[in-house]
Amino acid sequence: MKRRSFLLGATALLASPMLKATTLPQGTIKITVGWAPGGGTDVFARIVGNKLSELWDRPVVVENKPGATGMLAAEQFSKLRHSKDLNLLMAHVNTHAIAPHIFKTVSYDPLKDFAPVALIGATPHLLVANDRYKGKSVEDVVQLCKKNPGDISFGSSGTGSVQHLAAEMFNMAAKVQSIHVPYRGSGPMQTDLIGGQIDFSFDTMTASTAQVKGGKLYAIAQTRLKRAKGFPDVPTMDEHGFKGFDASSWYGVVGPADMPKDLATAINADINKVLLMPDVVQRFDSYGVEDGGGSVDDFASFMAVEYEKWGKVVRAANIRADS
Questions:
Q1: Is residue 231 part of a domain?
Q2: Which of 118, 193, 200, 201 is exposed most, by the fewest CB atoms within 10 A?
Q3: Strands (DSSP E) along the chain, which ranges?
């Protein structure tokens, strides 16, 4: 969904009545996050949760259940049913569009076992390198890979991560071979990238912004179809000639599969209000989070498209859990 079309409805959204606390389930209101505190998914959940707590005049608890890059929490949540408690989950591109195509241990269906509520937003990834490649363009990276087939390395935060799949998209689009080097998170991957042990990464903008702004990493390109406001001078892969290259980390709120549609719609309307609050917009812009909002059906369609897109990449690149 385009940000402009979302903002066109801002006045109507702000004028509409918010969900009354008395119409909410009377038990605990909880947002489950499948990652440890401090990461992007956790931060965004807490920003939204705090604002919803103010709107509803009810405590909104954020509970972290880290493990298996979010899959552990998603697996447990998929078994929940609507009750007197209001249970919400921060869905992520890894848990709801990528992992089910790669890991045989995933038993949930991301499109059937959850009720879509609202898209929180999406962040681009940055093609980053250290000083050794400063000033290089995407075409330079392509030529480097062609001249050194199988020797140029791309680091990721783990097998099946968006960093990993973005590199595979690049390999297929550029018709090159490169080495995938998985790490246990962006932190250790960045350490080796800065130190020159690996060559490049399609790291998340959220994780890499500090290193780029600090001059330790160099941003060559970004991976959404339009430039993020936080990096207006960094061209997109699409601008570099990789037409349609679109790889982002996205975040959204889902409920149990049997959540009533009218409740999901009401929560969606209040999340839309939160996403329009100036202080939330400012904080999200600093993380590169854009294009959140829209209806329940918009989010459902978005997840279906993302699930199909990444499934095609996984199959074409023959990505397996041990690759």
A1: no
A2: 200
A3: 29-33, 60-64, 86-92, 114-129, 153-156, 179-182, 200-204, 218-222, 248-256
Tell me the average confidence (pLDDT) per consecutive run of 10 residues in the chain, 323 residues long: 47 51 83 90 96 96 92 96 96 96 94 98 96 94 96 92 94 96 89 97 92 95 94 96 95 98 96 97 91 97 97 92 65
Asked if 130 and 68 sit in the same domain, the reply is no
Count CA atoms within 13 Å of residue 192 on its CB side. Answer: 19
Spatial CB neighbours of 56, under 8 Å, sequence gap ≥ 6: 18, 19, 21, 24, 29, 270
Note the pLDDT of residue 4.
45
Q: Quick check: is 206 in a domain?
A: yes
Chain Cα centroid distance, residue 209: 15
Alpha-carbon distance 244 to 292, whole Å?
20
What pLDDT is recorded for position 313? 94
What is the Rg, in whole angstroms, of the alpha carbon atoms belonging to the chain? 20
Q: Are residue 116 and residue 128 in the same domain, yes or no?
A: no
State the Cα angle at 306 between 32 and 218, rounded to 5°.
85
**pLDDT for residue 12:** 47
Say how far apart CA 47 and CA 150 lie, in whole Å: 42
- Shared domain for 275 and 192, answered yes or no, is no
DSSP H/E element including 283: helix 278-287
CATH code of 217's domain: 3.40.190.10
What pLDDT shows up at residue 10? 47
HSE at residue 218, side-chain half, CA atoms within 13 A, is 15
What is the SS3 assignment for 222? strand
* The predicted structure's pLDDT at residue 322: 63
Indicate the pTM of the whole model.
Answer: 0.87
Residue reference for tokens 């996205």: 250
pLDDT of residue 15: 46
